[in-house]
Amino acid sequence: MSEIILYDLPSRGKSACWSLNPWKARAALNYKGLPYRTEWTEYPDLEPKFKSLSIPPNDPNISKFDYSSPAVKLPDGSYVMESLRIATALDKLQPDPPLFSNDKETIDRAQTAVLGVQGAISAIVIPRVPELLLGERSAEYFNHTRAKRFGMSLEELAKSANVSEAWEKAAPHLKELNEILMEKEGKFVLGEKVSFADFVIAGFWAFVRKVDKEGDVEGRVYVYPSFKGHWEACRGWFERDD
After folding, report:
1. In this predicted model, what pLDDT tens digit does every residue of 183-238 receive, in sequence order?
2. What is the Cα–Cα distance from 66 to 74, expressed in whole angstroms?
3. CA 229 to chain CA mean position, Å
4. Strands 71-73 and 79-81, sheet pairing
5. Which residues are paired to 71 by β-bridges?
6. What is the longest distance spanned by two Cα atoms in the chain?
7. Could you tell me which residues come within 8 angstroms of residue 46 by beta carbon, excluding any fewer than 6 positions away?
8. Domain locations along the chain
9. Nearest-CA neighbor of 121 among 204, 202, 16, 203?
10. Domain 104-238, classified CATH 1.10.8.60, yes or no
């Protein structure tokens, strides 16, 4: 099988995967053992590069941005953007081992819960992305676009953070994640069978590790024993990060 190209966002220094959405697609590739290479693409280069490749823009119901990471070039020369669409395409390309069953509702629940936690603690973690992770060009782009989204600079956003209130708002979403993980007996969302919903959640665990400062985020996310157990069960598919 021809090599797949994964378009991912580089980190500062030696590039390594850090962002939640690319992690979902990368974990799916790692899980299936498909050959791929990463083409690191800075934030401001995503739109011109993907337009030049004739990739259609995102559905506005899925993303605030017309073009986003991840995207892949498949062995047949076609391109797919957005992690769920990529995982679906990979399942068609190589059905075994499968990533999907009758679990769309579970994936939606997992996505909603993860986004709920992220939204609640955004003033804490979002300013850390350019501070800790991005090179100069991507950091400048990130600061500009997120300042427009939040109506203030990321420096101001960080100062506005009410930490205790943020974690109170995150609590019901963390509780929902725990309920999702506890519904079936086994290490994964569906029990003993890995599914894309696991990578939705474990991608969040991986992101949390990148924006943590001395346990101030990771320590408050892992409020349920099921969370660390789930990360340990999934972490093998998150070892290859380049």
Report:
1. 999 999 999 999 999 999 999 999 999 999 999 999 999 999 999 999 999 999 99
2. 20
3. 19
4. antiparallel
5. 7, 81
6. 51
7. 7, 65, 67, 68, 69
8. 4-93, 104-238
9. 204
10. no
For 190-209, b/e burial (b = at least 16 CB within 10 A) is beebbbbbbbbbbbbbbbbe
Q: What CATH number should be reported for the domain whose range is 4-93?
A: 3.40.30.10
Q: What is the pTM of this model?
A: 0.95
Q: What is the spatial distance between Cα 92 and Cα 80, in angstroms, rounded to a whole number?
A: 13
Encoded tokens for 150: 């939040």
d(C-alpha 132, C-alpha 149), whole Å: 20
Is residue 100's pLDDT more than 90? Answer: no
DSSP the chain: -PPEEEEEPPPSSS-----HHHHHHHHHHHHHT--EEEEE--HHHHHHHHHHTTPPPPPTTT-SSSS-S-EEE-TTS-EEESHHHHHHHHHHH--SS---SS-HHHHHHHHHHHHHHHHHTHHHHTTHIIIII--HHHHHHHHHHHHHHHTS-HHHHHHH--HHHHHHHHHHHHHHHHHHHHSSSSSBTTBSS--HHHHHHHHHHHHHHHH-STTTTHHHH--SHHHHHHHHHHGGGGS---
Q: Do domains 4-93 and 104-238 have the same CATH topology?
A: no
Q: Are 71 and 39 in contact (CB under 8 A)?
A: no
